[in-house]
Design a protein that fits this description.
Helix content is 85%, strand content 0%. The longest helix has 33 residues. The protein is elongated, with a radius of gyration of 17 Å. The protein is built from six helices and no strands.
Length: 141
């Protein structure tokens, strides 16, 4: 599997979980009653995030790209790494805030709003990756 395909799959897996959770809002608008279900999605999201973060070999690959003599490649890689840091920060804060059913029940309205924001952030991030960085990887292989 080409590197860009591997990373695209990782992104798709993250989006699938957050989209499933958003769809659940449509059928279970009373978040407090279904907090256990949402907590299950949060666990899946956490697991997927940890798979999504760069492995050591990825870091070496990114370092190679960062040191590229092609300024476009180096800049795009720098942006990608920065965006990965933002993604990790946003999702980890989100997961900590709603790490169990009790926390979800404490503020179900904010949980729904925050979930929508995380979904939008992930959609933007995936679009950026797919149209920019992963396209670059495709040209290199």
């Amino acid at each position: 599997m080409a590197p860009q395909d591997f990373y695209r799959k990782k992104n798709k897996d993250l989006l699938t979980i957050i989209h499933e959770m958003s769809e659940k809002f449509a059928t279970h608008s009373d978040v407090s009653v279904h907090a256990e279900d949402f907590s299950f999605f949060m666990e899946k999201l956490s697991e997927e995030l940890h798979k999504h973060l760069p492995e050591e070999e990825d870091k070496q690959f990114f370092l190679h790209l960062l040191n590229s003599s092609d300024r476009y490649t180096a800049k795009l890689t720098e942006n990608y790494i920065r965006e990965m840091g933002k993604l990790a920060s946003v999702i980890e804060t989100y997961l900590e805030s709603y790490s169990n059913p009790t926390k979800i029940k404490q503020d179900p309205s904010n949980f729904m709003v925050t979930t929508k924001h995380v979904e939008q952030f992930l959609n933007q991030k995936v679009n950026y990756d797919n149209t920019g960085f992963y396209g670059l990887l495709g040209k290199m292989h």
